[in-house]
Structures are given as C-alpha cells and as structure tokens.
Amino acid sequence: MNSRSNLKITPLTPRIGAVVEGVDFTKPLTDAIFDEIHEAWMNHLVLFAHGPALTPEQHLSLGERFGPLHIHPAAPYAFGNPALMQIHTDASSKRNNGEGWHSDVSADLEPPMASILQIHQTPSYGGDTLWANMYLAFEMLSDPMQRMLEGLSATHSANYDGYYGDHQPQRENPVATHPVVRTHPVTGRSALFVNSGFTKRIEGLTKGESDALLGYLFEHIKNPNFHCRFQWRKNAIAIWDNRCTQHMAVWDYYPETRSGIRVTIKGDQPFFKPRNGEGSNA
Prior knowledge:
The chain has five helices and 17 strands. It has one domain (8-265): Clavaminate synthase-like (Double-stranded beta-helix). The protein has helices spanning 31-44, 56-66, 134-139, 143-150, 207-221; strands at residues 8-11, 18-21, 46-50, 69-70, 77-78, 81-89, 114-121, 129-133, 153-157, 175-179, 181-183, 190-192, 199-202, 227-230, 236-241, 245-249, 258-265. It is of the alpha+beta class. The strands form four sheets. Strands 1, 2, 3, 4, 5, 6, 7, 15 and 17 form a nine-stranded mixed beta sheet that branches. A three-stranded antiparallel beta sheet has the order 14-8-16. Strands 10-9-13 form a three-stranded antiparallel beta sheet.
C-alpha cells in the first residue's frame, strides 16, 4: 500500500502486521511521518522495518516519540540504562525471552502501551516471533461469550524471583486487576486482555470456573488465523501495540545466539466501555 509520502506500508497478513519501507528510524521523525506511521500502526497492530542499527540514544529517542518510557520490573538492561532492556538467548541460557504467549508486563497497574525491539544478532535459522490480534480473538467468540466476558475482571501477577539469574530487580513484583476485555483508548475497539504469562484468576468465579474459562481463552488465542509470523534479519525492528496484541518468541535455534535491545513505552490503566456506551470500569 502506498502512503501519502514516500512511505510504503505492505501488510504481512490481512489481519495483523505490516512492513514499513521508506523511513530511516535512526533520524528524528517529522510530525507528518510519525502521524502516518501511527495510523498504519493502529490499522496493522504491529509494524516491521529493516535496519540500519540504532544507537542506544536513537533507540531511546524513537521510543520517546511514542511516549514516556516504561522500566521493566526485573529484566537485565544494557548501557547502564534500565530503559534499554536486553533480549538475549544463547547456549548457556536456561530460558528464552518471551517464550509463551503474553502481553508485556500486563501485571503492572498501567501496562506498557507499546514495545520497540531491534534484533542485532540472529541465529542461522529460526528465532521467529509470532504476534496475535486480540481484537479478532474477541470478535471470533460467540455473542453470549462476549457478553459474559465484558463484565469480568482478572488478576494479573508476575513473579520474577530468580527469573533473570543474579540480576537484581528494578522494583517489586507487580500485581494488578484488569478487565478481561479492554477498550482500546485510540481505536475504541474491544480486545481480549488475558494472557497465559500473567493472568492468574478471574474475579468472582470459583477456582474451577476461572481455570476452565482461562484455559479455554488461552487455547483460543493460539488460533493461527489470528497470527502473523516475522522472520528476523539483522537489525530488523518491530513496533507492537501491547493493548491489542500478544506475542511469543520461538526458541528453535539452540545453541545459537539471538540478541537485541527493547525499549518499552508507558501505557495507561486498562478500562472497558460497554458497547451501549454507558459507563466503564477500570
């Protein structure tokens, strides 16, 4: 798809994801270009671009173009700056960053709005990341199921104790309660907002009911009809919306190395606005 400027936006799939060409993210974005990128981002949920490598300062500046930066509760960081989260897996790793379906740090009271990841070192093969469209995941549920979920809230919690080895956490493990279905503050669309990484219990249900419903929703999110899959190249960039997507990084390249830096942008407290437009809950 050709844009109003020299930007070229090419959908990766009809339902989620697009590749951006014609912009150099190492340079400050003009208001016109940023607005065009933001519009494409709202339409496609996750944007991808290829090189060149960002310096730490350029990566921080790009993140700040979207908003104030978020600090991960516990992850290791690079260049002495906790806003520059390290994404690194090699032959000595005990686990892989982002190995299960999740929305970044959804256990925070104000979960991140967006994340911007650049991968600097890729394995010979593999190491793809998948993203899922949570608007579509909600819309594909039956109307009775949608109506039931719209009235529910769920507890999200994160336990990073020992998760990143000897690295000392930046702050305490977060816990928060959010609506199961959230209203996107820009698009106004409803998105499913539970994930297997952080969502632990649906409020007001018995444990058995909560486990059964969450188990169903976690499996529902795995439907490949909601997904796109991105094959990383050196210095590729992904910009995704945590309010309406989930993602999962595939660890199929052991013992090779995959490494990069992620900058994350602060969000707001999730809320739900009923379809009849009356009231909201947060």
